């Protein structure tokens, strides 16, 4: 789980209570984008990504930036 924004630490805390797996919180989308690119580059084969955010989070800008770097 990769979470970004003001409430990311709370999202991670809830996630890890249910599913204690690797998760990271990011204060901003630029830092998340850098780590996401590193994750993708280190993956062989197909990869599926699910982006979830409120309209105010403007997650589409993160997706746009990710596609621009690929």
Question: What does this protein structure show overall?
Answer:
There is one protein chain. With 70 residues, this protein is mainly alpha-helical. 50% of the residues lie in helices and 9% in strands. The chain is built from three helices and two strands; from the N terminus they run E-H-E-H-H. It has helices spanning 8-18, 29-41, 59-69, and strands at residues 2-4, 24-26. The chain has a two-stranded parallel sheet with strand order 1-2. Helix 1 links the parallel strand 1 (2-4) and strand 2. It is globular, with a radius of gyration of 12 Å. It starts with a strand and ends with a helix. The relative contact order is 0.16. The mean pLDDT is 92.
Give the strand order, joined by hyphens, for the main sheet.
Answer: 1-2
Number of helices: 3
Which class best fits the helix and strand makeup?
mainly alpha
Tell me, what's the shape?
A: globular
The overall pLDDT, averaged over residues, is 92
Query: What characterizes the major β-sheet?
Result: 2 strands, parallel
Would you count the extended β strands for me? 2
Spans of at least 5 consecutive residues with low confidence: none
Beta content comes to 5-15%
Query: What share of the residues lie within helices?
Result: 40-55%
A few lines on this structure:
The chain is mainly α and 70 residues long. The chain contains 3 helices and 2 strands. Strand 1, helix 1 (8-18) and strand 2 (24-26) form a beta-alpha-beta unit.
């Amino acid at each position: 789980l990769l979470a970004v924004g003001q409430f990311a630490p709370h999202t991670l805390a809830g996630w890890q209570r249910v599913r204690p797996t690797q998760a990271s919180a990011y204060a901003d989308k630029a830092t998340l984008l850098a780590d996401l690119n590193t994750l993708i580059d280190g993956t062989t084969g197909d990869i599926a990504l699910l982006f979830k955010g409120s309209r105010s989070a403007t997650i589409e800008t993160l997706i746009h930036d990710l596609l621009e770097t690929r």
